[in-house]
Amino acid sequence: MISWIVGLVMTAQVLATGVHTGIQYISSLPPLPNQSAIVCHDSAWEQQTLVSYNTVKTHAKLKPFLEKMVADSRAEGVYITFTSGYRTCGEQASLRAYACGTGEYNMNIKPIKDCHPPTEPAGKSLHNEGLAVDLACAGYSLFESSPCYRWIKTNHLRYALLEHELEPWHWSTTGK
Ligand SMILES: [Zn+2]
């Protein structure tokens, strides 16, 4: 809780002052949905809200932050790539079944720490809002031991991204 409030305040300050240069095209922060309020969206919502970026789809309000993150990190010789962005609830359910098992308990109730890898139920993931991305680092098989991970740990507040406590590759607007 504290960490995302701090993150939000710091991000707002950075955006207000533009201290990190060249981000005046970012006009508003991306949403911070309460995880319990996330729902499955239909194709009309997807068309209104999502845009393509890099190899993924993402919320239109998150895209400028991702673009800036990639540009800034590449300028420092760090090559962040994306392995996942927006997911439909059908896609989330497939991943949940793979990570947690099938049946009502495994699909909807089992804590994510007991799933491998940790995976939220369909309709409860920030991926289902287009507000989470899974990251990789070109040339490194393990993100958490890559220079990309060290870079984003240092710089993430500029891009409205917070790290998930169980998944070092997963960054979202709330950290969930
Ligand atoms: Zn993820």
Structure description:
By secondary structure, this protein is of the alpha+beta class. It is 36% helix and 14% strand. It has six helices and six strands; from the N terminus they run ααββαβααβαββ. It has helices at residues 2-17, 43-49, 63-75, 89-100, 104-109, 147-155; strands spanning 50-53, 56-59, 80-84, 132-137, 162-163, 170-172. The strands form two sheets. The protein has a four-stranded antiparallel beta sheet. Strands 1-2 form a two-stranded antiparallel sheet. The N and C termini lie close together (11 Å). The model is unreliable at 1-24 (pLDDT under 50). The chain binds zinc ion (ZN). Residues 84, 127, 132, 134, 167, 170 line the site of zinc ion.
Write the layout of secondary structure elements.
Elements: H1 2-17, H2 43-49, E1 50-53, E2 56-59, H3 63-75, E3 80-84, H4 89-100, H5 104-109, E4 132-137, H6 147-155, E5 162-163, E6 170-172
Antiparallel strand pairs: 1-2, 3-4, 4-6, 5-6
Bound molecules: zinc ion.
Zinc ion binds next to strand 4.
Instruction: Please mark out the parts with pLDDT under 50 across 5 or more consecutive residues, or reply none.
Output: 1-24
The gross shape turns out to be globular
Average pLDDT confidence is 89
User: Structural class, please?
Assistant: alpha+beta
Could you name the key traits of this structure?
176 residues; alpha+beta; four-stranded antiparallel β-sheet; 6 strands; 14% strand; globular; disordered N terminus; binds zinc ion
Can you give me a brief rundown of this structure?
The chain has helices at residues 2-17, 43-49, 63-75, 89-100, 104-109, 147-155, and strands at 50-53, 56-59, 80-84, 132-137, 162-163, 170-172.
